[in-house]
Amino acid sequence: MYLCPMKKSTSFRNLLFVFTITAFLSCEKEKVDPEIPNESELITTFKVVFVSSAGDTGVFQFQDPDGDGGIAPSITNDTLKANTEYKLSYLILRDESTATPIEINTEILEEADEHQFFFIPENTLNLDFSYRDSDKNGKPLGIQFDAKAGTKSKGNLRIVLRHLPNKAAAGVSDGDISNAGGESDIEVDFQVVID
Fold it and tell me: Of 18, 79, 82, 97, which one has the fewest beta carbons inside 10 Å?
């Protein structure tokens, strides 16, 4: 009479063990499943186009066809005209690692509330920025922007695309990255000459 309860208890423990292993393996499979899409996009081409109402232009471009590692990226710099407002300026982002390029701008616009560009000139570079576009909450995005080149100067311009920034944090809506948080999708330094 004591064998039956013990047999049931052993069967129950075996069943519990099998259930635990199955649940564990299911969780592990989800963690490494390559079918789950990665949220960060591959950006191989990043173009910054400055256009003034008078038709003056400056084009800066970052290209890294093979992505991180491998061949070093190429960066093309340009010159901006001193004391000029660039009112029609914009950014272009693409993934050109495949035969058919993917327009990353489209994806960023669809998730505008989860992204923001930051324009960070060095202290010596006389260049100011303001946002010309916004997300559904009225917070800045930065694919379209205005820039004002002041007197002659030269220096580094860092442009950062931040994913999931805290757009409500102090200064972030004005373009200050200090309190933005989130993660950088791309960060590129351009050498700018204002002449």
Answer: 18
